[in-house]
């Protein structure tokens, strides 16, 4: 049940989401980041 469509959320609209919607958003964001791990900069200290 991911967020399949592109949307232009605002900071305020994110805080208005239900707990379940917030968790789904975090999951969708995580999946999106995990799909392209090479695009995530890793500091030398890690």
Which descriptors would you attach to this protein?
46 residues; mainly alpha; 46% helix; elongated
Describe how the helices and strands are arranged.
Blueprint: H1 11-15, H2 19-34
Question: What is shown here, in short?
Answer:
The chain is mostly helical and 46 residues long.
Describe this entry's structure for a reader:
The chain is an all-alpha fold and 46 residues long. Helix content is 46%, strand content 0%. The longest helix has 16 residues, at 19-34.
Total beta-strand segments? 0
Give the overall form: elongated
* Low-pLDDT regions: none
Average pLDDT level: 84
Q: Approximately how much beta-strand content do the residues carry?
A: under 5%
- The termini sit apart by 33 Å
Order of helices and strands: HH
Radius of gyration: 13 Å
Question: What structural category do the secondary elements indicate?
Answer: mainly alpha
Number of helices: 2
Sheet with most strands = none
Helix share bin: 40-55%
